[in-house]
Specification:
The chain has one domain. It is 25% helix and 38% strand. It contains three helices and five strands; from the N terminus they run βββββααα. This is Mis18-binding protein 1.
């Protein structure tokens, strides 16, 4: 039974090779230690996703817009995840990664 990993101040990062996205954020149960997930593969709810390792991440609060902007993510992309992962998240990620590969 995989327990949920709760992240605050979460943001979306791109894997090397622009092949997938993963999450970075602070883990509540680890004294706000900065944490990286594996590749996000599935949306369970707007604030809940599963990764390639099978872990389930619970996203608390809104996406960390400031640090994503600082890292150069396009505002349009960030906006789509402002309230978590929508049902269209895969399409958004695909377009975003496509852009980056150019």
């Amino acid at each position: 039974e995989q327990k949920n990993i709760c992240l605050t101040s979460w943001r979306i990062k791109v894997m090397d090779g622009n092949s997938a996205i993963f999450l970075e954020g602070k883990r509540k149960d680890r004294k706000d230690q900065l944490w990286h997930s594996n590749a996000v593969t599935e949306r369970i709810a707007s604030n809940q996703v599963r990764t390639s390792s099978g872990s389930v991440y619970l996203l608390q609060g809104r996406i960390d817009v400031a640090s994503m902007r600082k890292e150069g993510s396009p505002y349009q992309f960030i906006k789509r995840f402002r309230f978590g992962f929508s049902t269209n998240w895969k399409k958004y990620v695909e377009e975003f990664l496509e852009e980056r590969r150019r």
